Fold each of these.
Amino acid sequence: MLTHADFFAGLGVFSWVLHGNYIDRNLPKGVYRNMLRQIDLCSGVGAGFPLAATIINGFKLRGLCERDEFCCDRLRDRFPGISIYPDVKELWIEPNYADLITASPPCPPFSLEGKRLGNQDPRDCIPAVLRIVRRSQPKFFCLENVPGLLSAPINPGNEPGSYFQQMLRELYTSGYDAEWVVVGTQQFETLWRGERLLLVATSRCVVEKFSGLPTTWEYQIRGASEETGHSPEKRSVQSRVAGTTVRTPDRLDIPPGTKSGNRINRARRAALGNILDPRIAQIALQRVLYLNSLCKQ
């Protein structure tokens, strides 16, 4: 099993994609009693929200959803005993099955580096994700994507930003208040260059139970950034273009002696290219834990 120290040393995330698991079967009985039950959608190899949730605790993973065969094999190895659903567009989750739904939908429909087809892109999974949220009514919903989602049109030729506006409307009519931030990835010592959009939506049924006004998310993120020892110099070299690939040394993820054109190697590269660094995912999950702590018992 990959230790937290190994992971934060740098290359641990790549090692985790290929080896190790993160489900501890030796936890004491009753430890999950007060944890938020989590379902993760568009999971990839599980190195984003699922891995982040195991690092910071406070969550019980109940299910994953991923259609890619290579990624599903990795999920079965890393999260033994956890249900894996094959297609988010056909998934139904009953109400009260999960307290938290997290999702990392494909970003090509919105990326500044792509055609930005929005709803016309067959890879667009956000409508399916929102349908699941609306039906299952979790306490919280987290989504991550490229910042290009903020300015993407619903369809080519539509008003810039219309996709995100429609998404917010759907969340509101489903009973959720949303907040979002764009985070520079190198600000948190990650191996990814660029920025990521993080969104946390809270059920208004939960908001009504708050014992006081929440601290702003930006304030919390600033504190987390300072804890990493972030310096202004690192901010100045940060890419302003939303990155969708992992910047790694050539062949870093390939076992020695393996041909670069191997099918498994191509699958590995694709999986690594779509990974959300768990340190970035933790920013959203820490916000969820904080908001949940405000609820009157």
Amino acid sequence: EGKLGLIDGEHAKSETVEGYDIGYLIQRVFTVMQNQDLAERIMDSLTKRGHGLEKIKVILAARAIGGFLDANLDIFSPDFTYPKLFKDWLLKA
């Protein structure tokens, strides 16, 4: 149906970004789903709701490191294409 739903929501809170690790969601949408547009829409939605961009970027920086580590798990053929794109996108945000 073209909708995105929160599946793992036991820690979800509407008041804060920290309540649910939204950074993980944004990073996975960007790198695993390879959908930069959707990741940007999620981030834009957060900033429009009053969440500070710098605070979000701190969370995403930690997730960017995790993205590189995930890519490195494939010891035979690690692909850092999307982790690098995510890092570059984050630095420009």
Amino acid sequence: MADVVQSVTMVLAGAAAVLLGHRALRHWWAERAGRAYELPVDRTGTAVRAGAAGAAALLAAALAVPLFGGGGDEVGTGAAAPALVAVPPPPARTPEPAPPPPEVRTLGHPAGGTLDQLQEGTRVWLPPQYASPKAAGIGFPVVVAHLPADGEADLYSGFVLAAKRGLADPFVLVQPTDCAHGSATALAQAARRYRVLAARTATGLIGAGADAPCAVREALATTGRYGAAAGISGLYPPLAPSPLPRPSLLLALATDDTAARAAALRLRDALHPHGDEVRVIDGIAARRELFAQIAGYLTEKLDGPAKTVTPPPASVSPGSPTSPTAPLLSPSRPLPPSLPASRTPTALPRAAYPSHTASQSRKSSQSS
């Protein structure tokens, strides 16, 4: 209602200003026309009319400012103008989460092979022959290795050296983060990602130094996982007798390691009465040569590389657990059920693998 009254008053004031202005102009023209006849000039009427027109115009302008300037409510109601509401700044942008680390990260190419690290921390060394296009359908025997970091270079170069001499097969080496509980998990991870033979007869185990007792204990206590094992310069505690079959065992010693030699002989003497096969070698000073000898021993005891085929994934009902399938031996070229102890390294494509310059006659199981 106040806005209506104010608007009407503004219109009336504007009309009065126009009317009074018009009359002041007419009065001025009349005064000017009378000057030609020398009539007396009286400008009072013009001034009064002009002043009234100006006052009316000022009133109309004063009334128009609140109406058209957004202040009509405040004038009509007498309410105070609301305070300006500060616009809050936009919320800070939440940074996008970092992408997950890759499942497989290549660390380098020691000894001409490829060293990968899996997301769980397990490291896998692939021999140089693994990456050859002609080895695309070849599955490799796998060896779990527990040893100090300063012995890794000799491990890789020793296995490569034995393969170049034609005395050993190429192996995939799996290095778990934990000797006590990590071997089974590491083998499963390697089987999911690499072309490895999952059979017990193609799986070996190595432990060196402080990890040798743990590795040997695992090999002798685990049934059905390893076909052969090797301990290097370890101090082995007595083991409880077991009626279960145990894998072939090699105990290797560095030169002048009296304590390790005594421990190896005690373990050999404890296992021989139960029919376990234990071999002891010593007198090899160079670590690389020692690992080359171990590669030859594992070649003697384990299956060599073979053609593999990965079966198509079976249909699984929703919600049922699934597990990756390890490579199976190709039915067209099956491995023999048992390999003689005197076998030589498996013959592989010449372009993909180093040629065998010499054949090694495998010795029968013996102990020194």
Amino acid sequence: MIASAFVLALAHSAVSAAETPVDFSREILPILSNKCFICHGPDSRKEDLLRLDSFEGATSDLGGYRAVDPGDLAKSEII
């Protein structure tokens, strides 16, 4: 479900890229905040390698893979 919402948001951004840029704070951040930050955000209770509350955290190398690979979304593990 979470991955589906993220995929839809990314697909929407790809389709509408020529029209209007995606507003991360308004369109993507609420999804991550509601579905992901409890474990992968700034207030997560456990030490987790995957952080989704920052671009650096979402795109960091996690031992040969990335949650989000901005250069190649097909390689993104979150999708």
